[in-house]
Design a protein that fits this description.
The complex is a heterodimer of chains A (746) and B (148).
Chain A lengths: L23 H5 L33 H4 E3 L5 E5 L8 H13 L6 E5 L20 H28 L6 E4 L2 E4 L4 E4 H10 L26 H5 L15 E7 L6 E5 L2 H5 L4 E7 L2 E6 L2 H10 L2 E4 L15 H10 L5 E6 L2 H7 L2 E9 L11 E6 L5 E4 L5 H12 L6 E4 L19 H11 L3 E4 L2 H7 L6 E9 L5 E10 L2 H6 L8 H4 L11 E8 L14 H18 L4 H8 L4 H13 L8 E2 L5 E9 L5 E11 L2 E12 L6 H20 L5 E2 L2 E2 L17 E6 L17 H13 L17
Parallel strand pairs in A: 2-3, 7-17, 15-16, 19-20, 24-27
Antiparallel strand pairs in A: 1-2, 4-5, 5-6, 7-10, 8-11, 9-10, 12-20, 13-18, 14-15, 14-17, 18-19, 21-22, 22-23, 23-24, 25-26
Helix pairs in contact in A: 3-4, 4-5, 11-12, 16-20, 19-20
Chain B lengths: L1 E4 L2 E4 L8 H8 L18 E4 L2 E4 L12 E3 L8 H12 L9 H14 L5 H7 L9 H13 L1
Parallel strand pairs in B: 1-5
Antiparallel strand pairs in B: 1-2, 3-4, 3-5
Helix pairs in contact in B: 2-3, 2-5
Classes of the chains: A alpha+beta (746), B alpha+beta (148).
């Protein structure tokens, strides 16, 4: 995922999905009735199909982002969607700081498609832990510009010089006369003001909200059931739909044995054949679901030219064997020195192969989509998504209309973790569009949890081979690594044949340790599974591979793994400081095994990761109970350079630790006969409350460029845990999840 | 069929074996109760039935006719529920928030039956899944609500 910004971006590979012009009309239409700063916004001229960068500079036009209402409340159209990561609050803090409005006065919603919002390298997606770091400077500038427009309006209204005015939250103040004007009373005038350029920003030393643990804006609504997700929405006059997917991609519905019987079931409106699925439309979702699951469908095998067809003999065990056998050397992703010669000359060489399984997202909100065709030929879509413009283009192709005729509504997400990118065959909206067209009414389609497990786009299985050479002092002098498999960046953004997929090697490449001779390669191996982005992407497994092999190197050379890391980071003060910080946080590095106060034998493991522009050091403490790994404490030191909200960072680290631990302990999508064996949480176990460790977080602001927050806490967890397990049990686990291994007493 | 929901008798015409969850959401528009798994694994659909935390996704409506059903929409009408919500807000528990209706209902049931729960009581009652991993905040909030 880190590689998206560096990779030669080929727009997502859906054939229909070309960069196109986006109309302003649909962007602003909904807000024109309000008293807004935006009424004077010029509409950009239509642009030709395939045009390059948008003519507007994203993140600069105040009216596209802000509405100040008469009551002084502020609507902020955020380029990014909220899914628990706290981005709405962070943006209220950033814009509010410069605009001089208390963050609690903000309502933040995800902006519709539009060139103003293409904040991530000319694209828009909520992912890659990019949201705040990509937009921090622009959002400050936007808030400052809006504040200046309000000051200009007040100067005109009061007939005083602008420099005689100041602001306090939500008001312009004229101290000399004691007069003041509320922002809400100035918004209409301000909208007529020319947007000033180069407005100075507030001094960081004067920050009131940025850098502070501001309470999240949505917590009360989410605690009282009032928060609305896509699955909760309704469109007037809508019907509801459920689907039964083909067991394998590429198969199509053939004969249906009991269509008449199902048509007569309560509430059933109609039965539909869709690409790769059967659907029932009914008055209620439960009735639709029961009906569609009653259908006895004869699924026909995939045609020879079917896209993404899943072979009937595919198994995850088989893919693991294929990855294991896939020969190197692969495509170099990182090379320094001469690792081949250094390995030949090493006094000792160690080798190991690691692997990690496919993973499901398991976000608790099942996917849904509401499609409504309008009398004017436009289409409204409400759907969970991380990339409105990409979904707009894809939906337009499905609908057979121009993209500007598709309005995308992006409600808050009931978890995402990468689930709601545009993945061919993994999103319900194409089905909803077709069904709404067929029945001539709005349709809400929900995928049951079982259909979701069948069609989720998975974290790909990965495998890595390592060879390390040690010098006479037991220090690693050479490291050769091959990451085998296919990464999601390559799958969805295109991979040049001679280039490594960054999402396949991140976390093996880009490590900070001073090993003089090293070579990291990607051995591409196509994966028949629909793969996708999963929280921390390649790092989610590659840092496990690397950091556990690091401990193998340390053990082979008779080195303490913490001390060896410190030694190999001698020239990297940022990493050294971080590692020392996590050591202190944990009460001083203590590898063990040792006896805890409760009499259990325990040990600790350490790992580092450099994901998404941030740096992380992690220590975990484990014991064994009834043959299973118990994780008691996880200490995380994270250096994101600079921060916006420390409370959100701590919450995100807690969350990332939970998901990382879940993957280390429990999770594995097993394919047999071309189908995933688990279709719900009874078969696909995710971390339950009683397996959650205490989590201790230390944030370090090194002043380095701002890094990401949502994902970086994850990658260090599996290796820290597995390294601790190795110390405690003497067993080096090289294949996740740990639940595959039954541990003896220690 | 008549159902007593949040103190109001509601007439519903769904089949008797329809899960309570879908009657709440689709017939009555009470969308605070969430569909997560449909098989009583995740607890996002938790409601109170005569004060007992109940997974409404596997509870047919004919099994709860005549019983008192409480959903998240009415939780602040309950003294314990108000304390739980206050603790949830104070501890900034939710992240994505999707599971939190069910978590709040489970916590309210626990604290109603066991006002001073032990750690074991909390672990035994708070079994709903949270994919965002808010578990530590949840247990902190439950402990705070018990004190408050």
């Amino acid at each position: 995922m880190d590689g998206i910004l560096n990779a030669p971006i080929r727009p997502e590979r859906h054939p229909q999905d070309r960069p196109t012009n986006l109309s302003r009309r649909s962007v602003l239409g909904a807000s024109l009735g309000a008293l807004v700063l935006g009424v004077a916004l010029p509409r950009s001229a239509p642009r030709a199909q395939g045009a390059a960068a948008p003519s507007v500079r994203p993140g600069t036009r105040v009216p596209a982002f802000l509405e100040i209402r008469p009551d002084g409340s502020v609507l902020l159209r955020s380029p990014f969607v909220e899914g628990g990561q706290g981005v709405t609050t962070a943006f209220a803090q950033i814009v509010g700081e410069e605009l001089d409005v208390d963050p609690t006065a903000f309502t933040v919603e995800c902006a519709p498609p539009g060139a103003d919002y293409l904040m991530v390298n000319g694209m828009r997606f909520t992912g890659g832990s990019f949201s705040v770091r990509s937009s921090y400077a622009a959002m400050r500038g936007l808030g400052a510009t809006a504040r200046r427009m309000l000051l200009q309006a007040a100067a005109a209204r009061l007939d005083v010089p602008l420099d005689s005015l100041a602001t306090e939250p939500g008001r312009v103040i004229h101290a000399a006369s004691g007069r003041s004007l509320a922002y809400g009373a100035l918004a209409a005038d301000a909208a007529a003001m020319p947007a000033p350029e180069g407005v100075p920003l507030r001094a960081e030393s004067a920050f009131r909200w940025i850098g502070k643990p501001v309470a999240r804006l949505d917590v009360r609504a989410k605690s009282t059931g009032k928060a609305l997700y896509a699955i909760d929405l309704t469109a007037e006059g809508m019907l509801q739909a459920a689907v039964q997917h083909a067991p394998r991609l590429g198969m199509e519905p053939g004969a249906v044995a009991n269509e008449a019987e199902v048509r007569a079931m309560p509430g059933v409106h109609s039965i539909h054949r869709l690409p790769g699925a059967m659907a029932v439309v009914a008055d209620r979702w439960w009735r639709a679901r029961r009906a569609v699951e009653t259908l006895q469908v004869d699924w026909t095998e995939a045609a020879p030219d079917a896209r993404n067809a899943m072979p009937g003999d595919f198994s995850s065990a088989g893919l693991r064997a294929t990855l294991t056998a896939a020969p190197g050397p692969g495509i170099a992703a990182e090379s320094q020195g001469d690792s081949a010669t250094a390995l030949r000359n090493a006094v000792r060489v160690i080798e190991a192969t690691y692997d990690a399984p496919h993973l499901a997202h398991g976000q608790l909100e099942p996917p849904s989509a509401i499609a409504r065709w309008n009398a004017d030929g436009t289409l409204d879509l409400w759907l969970p998504n991380q990339a409105p413009e990409m979904f707009q283009r894809a939906a337009a192709t499905v609908a057979g209309i121009e993209p500007e005729k598709v309005r995308i509504h992006s409600p808050m997400l009931g978890g995402f973790f990468g689930r709601h990118f545009l993945y061919e065959s993994a999103n319900p909206f194409p089905q909803a569009i077709l069904l709404a067209k067929a029945v001539g009414r709005p349709v809400k389609l929900i995928w049951s949890r079982e259909e979701e497990f069948l069609r989720d786009a998975l974290r790909p299985m990965g495998l890595a081979r390592f060879r390390a050479g040690l010098d006479p002092q037991g220090l690693p002098i050479a490291l050769h690594a091959e990451a085998v498999g296919e990464g999601p960046v390559g799958r969805w953004f295109g991979r040049q044949p001679d280039r490594a997929d960054p999402s396949a090697v991140e976390g093996i490449a880009g490590k900070p340790y001073a090993i003089p001779h090293r070579h990291v390669a990607h051995v591409p191996q196509p994966n028949p599974v629909m793969i996708g982005f999963w929280r921390s992407v390649g790092h989610s497994m590659n840092d496990f591979f690397y950091e556990t092999f690091f401990d193998e190197m340390a053990d082979a050379g008779g080195q303490d793994p913490f001390a060896l890391r410190l030694r190999l980071l001698a020239e990297s003060p940022r990493h050294r400081t971080l590692l020392e910080a996590v050591g202190h946080l944990s009460g001083g590095w203590r590898r063990g095994p040792f006896e805890a106060a409760d009499g259990t034998r325990r040990a600790r493991g350490v790992a580092m990761a450099s994901p998404f522009g941030s740096e992380v050091a992690t220590i975990a403490e484990v014991s064994i109970r009834d043959g299973e790994v118990m994780v008691h404490d996880v200490w995380v030191a994270i250096d994101p350079g600079s921060i916006v909200n420390p409370a959100i960072i701590e919450a995100q680290v807690q969350s990332a630790v939970a998901l990382g631990l879940s993957s280390a302990l429990l999770e594995e999508v097993v394919y047999e006969g071309g189908t995933p064996q688990a279709r719900n949480f009874d078969g696909y176990r995710i971390l339950p409350p009683d397996r959650m460790p205490r989590v201790h977080v230390r944030i370090i602001e090194s002043g380095a460029p701002m890094g990401g927050i949502g994902e970086p806490g994850l990658p260090g967890v599996p290796p820290a845990v597995v390294n601790a397990v190795a110390t405690l049990t003497g067993q080096r686990i090289r294949s996740l999840p740990l639940s595959k291994t039954r541990f003896g007493s220690v | 069929m008549d159902l007593l929901i949040n103190g109001v008798t509601r007439q519903v015409d769904s089949e008797a074996d329809t899960p309570l969850l879908w009657v709440l959401r689709d017939d009555l528009g009470l969308t605070g109760t969430k569909y997560g798994c449909g098989v009583a694994q995740c607890g996002a659909c938790t409601v109170l039935v005569d004060g007992q935390a109940t997974r409404s996704c596997v509870t047919p409506i004919d099994a709860v006719a005549g019983q008192s059903i409480t959903t998240i929409e009415a939780i602040e009408a309950d003294a314990v529920g108000r304390k739980v919500i206050a603790a949830w807000v104070a501890n900034q528990v939710p992240q994505c928030g999707y599971c939190q209706s069910g978590q709040v209902m489970a916590a309210t049931a626990l604290l109603t039956q066991t006002p001073q729960p032990s750690e074991e009581d909390i672990a035994g009652a708070m079994t709903n899944l949270c994919r965002c991993g808010t578990y530590n905040a949840i247990s902190a909030a439950v402990r705070q609500a018990a004190q408050g």
